[in-house]
Amino acid sequence: MHLIIKGLGWLSLLILLGLAGLALRVALDGQAVVPERAPLSAADHAWAEDWLRHNRPRDRLAGMPTMVALSAAEAERVANHLIARIGAEGRAAVQLAPGRLDLQGSIALPWVGPGRYLNLELGLVEADGALPAVASARVAGLPLPAGLVQGLAERLLDALGQSRLVERTRLGPERISVIYTWQADGLERLASGLIADADRPAMLAAQRRLGRHLAEDRSAPDLATLLGVLLGAPSEAPLADNRAALLLLALYVNGQQLHDPEAERLPQRTVTLRKREDLAQHFTASAALALEGGDLFSTLVGWYKEHSDSDGGSGFSFADLAANRAGIRLAILATATPEQARWVRERARAGLIEDDFMPRIAGLPEGMNKTEFAARFGDTEDPRYRRIAEHIERRIDARPLHRDAP
Predict the structure, then answer these.
(1) Consecutive H or E run containing 318
(2) For 25-40, how does the pLDDT look when each residue is reduced to its tens digit (9 = 90+)?
(3) Where are the beta strands (DSSP E) in 126-201?
(4) β-sheet with 117-125: strand ranges across
(5) Which residues contact 129 (CB under 8 A, 6 or more apart)?
(6) Radius of gyration of the chain (CA)
(7) Is the overall model pTM greater than 0.70, yes or no?
(8) What is the rounded CA–CA span in Å between residue 304 and residue 158?
């Protein structure tokens, strides 16, 4: 259950940030919809961590139904613990009624200044199937378009349905209860379900090609080699195949893969960029987000992740941001026009090295906590920050793949 909650938590955060990117200039609230309250105590955090640890799906036998149940107060405690653990500044509130759950969340958006919040209000109701339905959703106090809400909800609920993880959800006045049956490939099925139908065939083809390469070459792969393998393959639809290759690599590099009923699972290996696993993860995730949500969305998410790291994580890293931007830039180049897509594949067919697309990271500040970052660089509008950001862009511009692009 822990991995599912963690994955869905990040998915929800990415959706929220994407909506925030669309609404930054429209309607951010000056007040959090969830009232400020005392932070969770050490005992609360310990209880929530213990609950998550004891409900890990890897501790369950595959195929055995398991029920988990939480009161509103316990669900609130777990939600706020997860918000704190991923480094976000925010708080959540949960209310239960017969057949209904209401969730409120307030997330501070540090890049737009203090006292500005993205507020979420979500209502779920029991439905005939295994999963609840979305009754209402509001962001920043404004009603979301019904079509958008329904589309996001259906995509997630369909993915959960295809995963065959959840068998029944009950929303009572006292408790939320979920019965799920863990499957060994459950997360792969969930990931597959979140992929748009139009992308899945090309992504499965890319995954099978990657599998053949990994079977032939058992060494630890670097990202440049895998990009060359997938982007350099023969293609009659370069735009779609470039998109599929980048989305598939984002899954694989970050420890996931698609459920493929016709092929064996890929062996999971650590993929590096500049000899670092984290840079490969940042690069591929940002490329995928650029394909799904655009440059603004992926830039916001990348910056938010670094800001979170500076507040108790690994520290703010301009090297990570360089990988984020390099991933975004490659995704844009590889899918901008059919001509550019074909050109990228021709270059990849000749073989790619890291210097073709990834800037050098020497001299880029890393490992700064929140206080140190603020003292040295202020915020994203500070001239000191902008100088380094622009320097990173110039480094990317100088990479042969971008310098020589038509």
Answers:
(1) helix 318-335
(2) 334 556 778 888 788 9
(3) 133-139, 142-143, 166-171, 175-181
(4) 90-97, 100-108, 117-125, 133-139, 142-143
(5) 161
(6) 22
(7) no
(8) 28
